[in-house]
Design a protein that fits this description.
This protein is an alpha/beta fold. It folds into 2 domains: about 190 residues, Isopropylmalate Dehydrogenase; about 140 residues, Isopropylmalate Dehydrogenase, CATH 3.40.718. It is about 40% helix and about 25% strand. The chain is built from 11 helices and 12 strands. Strands 2-1-3-12-11-4-5-10-8-9 form a 10-stranded mixed β-sheet, sandwiched between helices. A two-stranded antiparallel sheet has the order 6-7. Helix 6 links the parallel strand 8 and strand 9. Helix 5 packs across helix 6. The longest helix is centred in the N-terminal third of the chain and has 16 residues. The two termini are about 25 Å apart. The structure holds nicotinamide-adenine-dinucleotide, 3-isopropylmalic acid and manganese (II) ion. The site of manganese (II) ion has 2 residues, from helix 8. Catalyzes the oxidation of 3-carboxy-2-hydroxy-4-methylpentanoate (3-isopropylmalate) to 3-carboxy-4-methyl-2-oxopentanoate. The product decarboxylates to 4-methyl-2 oxopentanoate. InterPro entries: ICDH/IPMDH, IsoCit/isopropylmalate_DH_CS, IsoPropMal-DH-like_dom, LeuB_actb. Its main location: cytoplasm. Belongs to the isocitrate and isopropylmalate dehydrogenases family. LeuB type 2 subfamily. It is found in: Cytoplasm.
Length: about 350
Amino acid sequence: SRSINLAVIPGDGIGQEVVAQGLKVLNAVLPQDVKLETKEYDFGARRYHATGETLTEADLAALKKHDAILLGAIGDPSVPSGVLERGFLLKLRFAFDHHVNLRPSRLLPGVATPLAGQPEIDFVVVREGTEGPYTGNGGTIRKGTPHEVATEVSVNTAFGVERVVRDAFARAQARPRKKLTLVHKNNVLAYAGHLWTNVFTKVAEEFPEVTTDYIHVDAATIYLVTDPGRFDVIVTDNLFGDIITDLAAAVSGGIGVAASGNINPSREFPSMFEPVHGSAPDIAGQAKADPTATVLSVALLLRHLGYDNEANRVEEAVSADLGGRGDTSRTTDEIGDALAVRVAG
Ligand code: NAD
Ligand code: IPM
Ligand code: MN
């Protein structure tokens, strides 16, 4: 019989609240014969205050045994900015080589958008997940003086860029419109820009059916607002991908509905699924968080593990729920309950 051995990392702030709903929907959608085993990991501010520790080697060894990881959010105002984010979240993405950070954006019918009219929005951002300025390569000299100098080195390897670009081409090839846009800043970032552009052009030869396009990241933020329909698949570096996917979320239903998968395509390590948003300390503990992004991340998780029917049912439940939403008065729990009822029925 089939089974899913899932690691659950609720994390900080609203992470706790939304992951509970994600699990509720997962339990409701899985058929009887699928055995779901979950193990919760207490990562985030509580663990850090109690032990001074962030992610350990023992944690990684334990996590490695799971089929997949569901994460809420990491980061808390009681800890200096970045300590938990780097110490838990980024460490995990790097250790498990989550180089494909998949962030789909789809504006569902009837869902509010700040954009004029109801533009067609259906694209996916393939954000590189293990390189760029996220590698922690940098330094400070004369710290704290008026002459402080800080460097933050963006690391881009031919190997790392090529594998994520090839993954994005394959995804574009599999979609009806077969279009891939490289987003970078090759007019200023001479070295990384050259590497990305060259690799993109070279890999394109393997995918003659895919239409290609290049847009500077600043201009991409214009088109995401004025003409989002032009995008099908976008491939971009780690930091640009972080920034444009919050914008993408904002125009396609809001940050409360944006899902992501941190994928290790070789399956050597478990992939990790999480909402694009963070721990939202401004609304934590108030039952105001929208759990839809986490529920849609559960759909990505299901599809990754081969449960396509169940993934589709979760996405259909969200479409139906969002289409009929209209007001924002429901609590986190009420939205989770409504989605669980829809996937079960
Ligand atoms: P955030 O995404 O937590 O919040 C940004 C805004 O979006 C806030 O106004 C918040 O109330 C709103 N929001 C977020 N999720 C929502 C939801 N599900 N429903 C309704 N509204 C929602 O970003 P931030 O404020 O920049 O960061 C807060 C903390 O989270 C920081 O510590 C940051 O480092 C961390 N963070 C973690 C992750 C992650 O774990 N993957 C992602 C982003 C930010
Ligand atoms: C995200 C977050 C993280 C990132 C932070 C919290 C490290 O913003 O998942 O989008 O920058 O990748
Ligand atoms: Mn982000």
